Amino acid sequence: MGIAMLFEHKNEELFTLNRADTEQPLSSYAMFSFELDGAHWPSVEHYYQAMKFEDEAHRNKIRECASAAEAAKLGKSRRAKRRKDWKKTSTVVMTRGTYIKCKTHPEIAEQLLSTGELRIAELSGYDYFWGSGRDMRGKNNFGKVLMAVRDKLKTEA
Ligand SMILES: Nc1nc(O)c(N)c(N[C@@H]2O[C@H](COP(=O)(O)O)[C@@H](O)[C@H]2O)n1
Q1: Ligand 1 centre from 141 Cα, in Å?
Q2: Among protein residues, the one whose CA lies closest to atom 15 of ligand 1
Q3: Residue whose C-alpha is closest to residue 70's, from 116, 22, 119, 115
Q4: pTM for the whole thing?
Q5: Is the CATH number of domain 4-44+91-156 3.60.21.10?
Q6: pLDDT tens, residue by residue, 26-50
Q7: 141 lines ligand 1 (CB under 6 A)
């Protein structure tokens, strides 16, 4: 993934990525650790998935997962009860984790800033909430999270 011309009819250049790409430092699954809310998180995805729950023991179980994919699997399982306000807070949690990762790893902040003013799109064939969806009509909330963090980093530069 990288810079693409997906809307050639609109002549719009995009920076594209997939949230689950562990090789892409800007993705939430990339293993770049940080401290937040009094704990050490191996990736943004670990933090994001754990924050779905109020139960401390379940959060810790997710935090200790060896990979982001494992953390996501545990976070998506319906065995533990999700916090009631999750729908309202999920993008805020993703934004906080992504911002703190960038502050902890300045090279990632640099990479994000180097996308300039390009629109960032999370390419996903199935996810219409975080990504583009199959037809590019998705909400692209992960792309929006990255653009919001980029805006904040710009004001601090
Ligand atoms: N509608 C909606 N609101 C939210 O706040 C969400 N987090 C999602 N997520 C959707 O559900 C799938 C699994 O959730 P997470 O990736 O663990 O958030 C995800 O693929 C989204 O489609 N949906």
Answers
A1: 10
A2: 76
A3: 22
A4: 0.92
A5: no
A6: 999 999 999 999 999 999 999 999 9
A7: no
